[in-house]
Amino acid sequence: MALVTPLDPSHDPETRELAEFFNETLGFCPNSVLTMQRRPAISKAFINLNKAVMANEGRVTSALKRMIAWVSSNATGCRYCQAHAIRAAERYGAEQEQLDNIWEYRTHPAFSEAERVALDFSLQASMVPNAVDQEIKDRLYKHWDEGEIVEMLGVISLFGYLNRWNDSMGTNVEEGAIESGEQYLGKHGWNEGKHNGSQY
User: What pLDDT, on the 0 to 100 scale, is given for residue 198?
Assistant: First the structure.
């Protein structure tokens, strides 16, 4: 059971309208947003930030952004966000081989060097204490420009917020996200954990 109960999607009309964004990315409105709308200013600001962060401005593809989100969520241990990120990566055209081998991104041939450094950046930026250093900066600059690095850090920071929110809330993971989590992450031990509705 979640710490705070999600509200009905029709609770706040403005949030509901903005949340149509998630029907494309996930196929449903996340329970996290339905909880945030207890304070509609938070839910609306969050959705607008999410839309800005995930907008395509260059070579950081929608699929790569979602894989960056997955690495960040994996680093922090948020199973809810892991499932959402891998589902969104699938829906945004990540290659099947990448989805099947996301755990081995550092060595698997399905990932380019540019993708590897982006995902390493996500891992290092998500650690506590933060592990971003000169080496990762030098590697990033071999493949990405400053605007693209800002886009990546936007995703990492957005999911830092979501990881804290959903792991603290024990947000119940939705059926579609469970399916994606089990399909792509289950072989490495992913399960719903505290997000299955029986905790708290």
Answer: 53
